[in-house]
Amino acid sequence: MIAKRLDTLAISILTLLCMVFGLQQIAVKLTLPDISPVMQAGLRSVAATFLLVAWMKYKGETIFQRDHAEFWGIIAGLLFAGEFLVLYMALEYTGAARATIFLYTSPFIVALGAQLFIPGERMRMIHIAGLIAAFMGIVLAFSDSLFSPDSNLSETITGDLLALLAALMWGATTVVIKATPQSQLSPSRVLLYQLAISAITLPIASVIMGEDGVRQVTLNSGLGMLFQVVIVAFVSYLTWFWLIRHYQASKIATFSFMTPMFGVFFAWLILGESISLSFALALLLVASGIYMVNRN
Asked: What are the EamA domain coordinates in residue numbering (predicted)?
C-alpha cells in the first residue's frame, strides 16, 4: 500500500535524513585532507556493505538468492556509483554552490520519471509550482557564490554538465527502484545492490583517476568516515529506501531540497562559513514548495 501523502512520521524522518545528508558534506570536507573524495565514497561503500550484510543476517534475510530483480538491481547500483563518481569529478571543475544547484534538479527528474513510469503518481499544477518554488529557494540560497570572475568558463561548464549528469543518475535511481521489481524487495536488499556495486567500482575508479587515496588517518578523518559509514550509508540510506517503498517517489524526492539548506546551516555552525541575508527567504521558498508538493 503506497501512501498518497506524507504523514507526520514520514515528515519527521525525512527532516532528520536531510539533516544527516547536510552533515555528510561537512564530514566529507573534514576528511578530504586525509582521504581523496572518490576513495572516501568507495571505502564508505565497502564498510557499509559489511555492516549491511551483518544486519541482514541478524534479521534472518538471505543474502544470496534469486529475487527476480537482479537486472534492475545492477542498473540501480551502477547509477548509484556513477552519481558519486561524476559528482566528485564535477567538483574538480566547478564551484560547490554551482554543483549543488545542478545536483538538486534531481527531484524534477524523479517527477518526470514518475509521470512516465510509475502508475498512480500524477502531479497537478500546484505540485509543479511547488517543485519550482523549492528549486528557486536553492538558487537563492547559493546566489552569492554562483558567479566567480576568476573562473574558467569552459571548465565551469564541464563541471556544471557533470553535476547535471549526477542529478540525472540520482533521479533515475529512484525511478528504477520505484518502477521495477526492486520496489517489491526489502529496503536492505535494495541497498545491498547499490552498496556492493559501488564498493567494487568506486575504489577502482579512484585508482584509475590517479587519486592519492588514503594519505593518513587522523581523528578527524576517522570520525568523518565513521559517520559516513554508519549514519549515512547504512542507517540513513536504509531509511530512505524504506520511505521510497511506502510513499510517493516525487513527494519524497522534493524533501531533498532541504538537504543543501541544512548543509549551509551546518557549514556556518561547524566550519564558520558565512550565511547571507537571503538564506531566510530561501528557506521560506523551500518550505513553501515542499508544502505545495504535498497538498492533495
From this structure: 11-142, 158-294
53-70 pLDDT, tens digit each: 999 999 999 888 888 889
Nine cell digits for residue 209: 583517476
- What cell does 20 get? 544527516
Rounded Cα gap, residues 21 and 259, in angstroms:
6
Pairwise CA distance, residues 194 & 49, whole Å:
9
pLDDT tens track for 16-25 = 998 998 888 7
In single-letter form, the type of residue at position 89 comes to: M
Positions in the chain short of pLDDT 50: 1
pTM recorded for the entire structure: 0.82
Helices and strands: H and E segment counts in the chain:
13, 0
How far is 94 from 92, CA to CA, in rounded Å? Answer: 6
User: Angle, to 10 degrees, between the axis of helix 70-90 and the axis of helix 153-179?
Assistant: 160
Terminal Cα distance for the chain, rounded? 17
- HSE-up of residue 184 (Cα within 13 Å, Cβ side): 7
Whole-number average pLDDT of the chain: 85
